[in-house]
Amino acid sequence: MISFDDFSKLELKIGTVLETEAVEGSEKLIKCKVDLGEENPRQILAGVKQWYKPEDLVGKQVVVVANLEPRKMMGLESQGMVLMAGDEPVLLIPQKEVPPGTKIR
After folding, report:
1. For the domain that residue 52 is a member of, what is the CATH number?
2. Any domain includes 78
3. pLDDT at residue 105 above 90?
4. What percent of the chain has pLDDT over 90?
């Protein structure tokens, strides 16, 4: 269990996937450029290659944990985390399109 105060530290936002490509040498990672309503898109590595083709993600709006510390994987930096649900993950997407960077409450 975590406290509400700990949960409230998470910054969840809607991002729009602009570009994607498979990460060479990785069975899981897809490199995504995601618009979070900031000056520059973020690079986010998503471990979904076994369920999604890179091109399937382009144009999708996704839920992103935006305030994680950057993490290096396969020599690349990931600047957030795309949230998914289930053992064979499905994207968490808004019911209708919203502006990139919209906060989840």
Report:
1. 2.40.50.140
2. yes
3. no
4. 96
